[in-house]
Amino acid sequence: MSGLVFRRAGDSDAVTVRNLTHAAYAKWVPVIGRKPKPMNADYERAVRAHVIELAHLDGELAGLIELIPAADHLLLENLAVAPPHQGKGVGRHLMARVEALAQARGVTLVRLYTNKAFTSNLAFYRTLGYAVEREEPIQSGGFLVHFVKEVPAA
Questions:
Q1: Of 2, 7, 37, 52, which has the fewest Cβ atoms less than 10 A away?
Q2: Across-strand partners of 66?
């Protein structure tokens, strides 16, 4: 998996980001009975306002990360893995990239959140050392689980 090549998304990538996100999150629609938040995002705005990196494997889009930098942490807003690449370790490599980018920015905290109904996501983040910081109700029903992890300084 060391063959992942990362590239910063630009304005012309908004449709690609949207399409990958929709494909990656489609499996959750029947679980929660609606589109998850990332499927409703404005990616024309996000590619300009956030840090979005596309990850390619052997020339094929395998995943993406969307980050929102803050003064004291890096917020992972979206992690999406293309369905053909799910379950193959791409997510772990994307998370390693997130943590490396946090270190490069000089912050030692990575924060993220996911829907409590996405049990495989909860388990995934826990195996990577993320701790539950809090839960909060979602207006449309259910709960968000907020995770945090301290990463070593670079």
A1: 2
A2: 52, 78
Report d(CA 63, CA 72) in Å as an integer: 26
Mean predicted confidence (pLDDT) in 88-113: 96
47-84 pLDDT per residue, tens: 999 999 999 999 999 999 999 999 999 999 999 999 99
What CATH number corresponds to the domain at position 30? 3.40.630.30
Residues 6 or more apart in contact with residue 142 via CB below 8 angstroms: 32, 115, 116, 117
Alpha carbon distances (Å) from 50 to 1, 27, 42, 47, 92: 25, 25, 11, 6, 21
Contact 61, 19 (CB under 8 A): no
Residue 45, C-beta contacts closer than 8 angstroms, at least 6 positions apart? none
- Band of residue 3 on the pLDDT scale cut at 50, 70, 90: confident
**pTM above threshold 0.85:** yes
What are the backbone angles phi and psi of residue 140, rounded to the nearest 5°?
-85, 5
Token pair listed for 96 = 């390693």
Report the DSSP pairing between strands 109-115 and 143-150.
Answer: antiparallel
> Which pair of structure tokens corresponds to residue 19?
């399409």
Q: Please give the tally of structural domains in the chain.
A: 1
